[in-house]
Amino acid sequence: MSERLTVVFDDEDLYRRLKVTAARRGQPAKQLIEDAVRSYLGEDLDSRPPKPFDWAQFEEWQSEVDALDADAGDGAPANLSAITGHRYEVAEQGPALRIAEGRTEYDSR
Amino acid sequence: MIRILVDASALVPLEVGRDQWRARVLAILRELTKAGRFELVTTSWTLYEALAIVQRRDRSRVAHLFARASNLMHVVRVGPAAEAEALRRFLTWADKTASIVDHANLLVALETGCDAVISFDDDFRPLVAGTALRLVR
Question: What are phi and psi of A81, to 5 degrees?
Fold first, then answer.
């Protein structure tokens, strides 16, 4: 169902840019406005088809990871999920890392 | 269907087998699968953050993570409204240690009707407090 809304542009230059862009793209101005509002408000997952977690697909991914890791060897850092440390390049012993990740021992098995 | 947001701290271990949290993430997903149908959600910012972190280990793995995560999860773009509010919270909520990405993740989780968040980042804990979201770790 369509809904009607009248918009008064106080910024004439913005309105002009809208019309020019719509003409350049060959789209109606209302399409650009709809796209802009949709983009501004973010996505509505309920309007998208559901994406139930697929365990078989997940297992396939993890098998590939195991194979790639086996090829890569042991030289790489293992605490990559210490996000705060990576974001701010905080040293491993720093307080931010302690707050974010605690002192959990790494288990390579 | 239950909807769960995945934080970068839970996304990275899915691509890096030696990561300290991998076993825990696998156990969580196994438990959720036994419990019923659910869908995973992440944000574009979180995915990009995870890609940047994985890149440090192995550049060749980023395309693999992107493809697999995009197939398995809803990747929600952080819109300008969420970005503006995340920035406002980051700048004004002086008692929180969370990053802008954490704030944006929380906003997207709430806006998209998520029930829980998988995160091993303690900065997330105070953000979730007071919301209906459950922190899974």
Answer: -85, 5
ipTM value, please give it: 0.89
Q: What is the torsional sign of CA A41, B52, A105, B29?
A: positive
For chain A, say whether B67 makes contact (Cβ under 8 Å).
no
pLDDT in tens, chain B (137 residues): 899 999 999 999 999 988 889 999 999 999 999 999 999 999 999 999 999 999 988 888 999 999 999 999 999 999 888 999 999 999 998 777 889 999 999 999 999 999 999 999 888 888 888 899 999 98
CATH number at residue B103: 3.40.50.1010
Tokens 């302690």 belong to A98
Closest Cβ–Cβ partner in A43, A76, A106 for B76? A43
Q: Which range marks the domain in which residue B131 is found?
A: 2-136
Residue B57: which of A51, A76, A84 has the nearest Cβ? A76
What does pTM read for this prediction? 0.77
